[in-house]
Amino acid sequence: MLKIQKTVNASASVSTTSAEILNKPNYLRKALIVTNTSSSAVVTLAKGDVAAVAGAGIRLQPNSSYIESTDSGFTCWQGAIQAVADGAGTVAIVETYEEK
Predict the structure, then answer these.
(1) Which of 33, 44, 71, 75 could form a disulfide with 94 if both were Cys (CB 3.0 to 4.6 A apart)?
(2) CB atoms < 10 A from the CB of 27, how many?
(3) Domain-by-domain residue ranges, the chain?
(4) pLDDT at residue 1, as a whole number
């Protein structure tokens, strides 16, 4: 059976208060790219339902990205993603998924 894959592009504002930027999907996430598009803010990502803590976790300097994909035996994270920044910032999100 042929599986339909889709790609979604989005953006989210990030502040000094942790917030969910991606919820737990009801589809199979195949790839995820989160890019810090801020000019100076450092963004910290946390996987799961626990609040992100600035500086503790996946840290993205301005114009850097975090990338995951389901390749070579690795399974892309299927849960929620939280984000916090050390100032006002934004992230760009690219997500590719396969319908279940």
Answers:
(1) 33
(2) 14
(3) 11-98
(4) 66
DSSP assignment of 26-72 equals SSEEEEEEEEE--SS--EEEEESSSPPBTTBSEEE-TT-EEEEES-T
**CATH class given for the domain over 11-98:** mainly beta
pTM, rounded to two decimals: 0.92
Side by side, which strands form the sheet with 43-47? 19-22, 81-85, 43-47, 58-60
Residue with tokens 């995820």: 32
Tokens 């992100």 sit at which residue?
Answer: 52
pLDDT value of position 26: 87
- The answer for residues whose C-beta is within 8 angstroms of residue 36's C-beta and 6 or more apart is 42, 43, 60, 61, 62, 63, 64, 65, 89, 90, 91
CA separation for the pair 57, 5 (Å, rounded): 29
Q: How many other β-carbons are positioned within 10 Å of the β-carbon of residue 49?
A: 11
Q: Beta strand 5-14 with 89-98: parallel, antiparallel or unpaired?
A: antiparallel
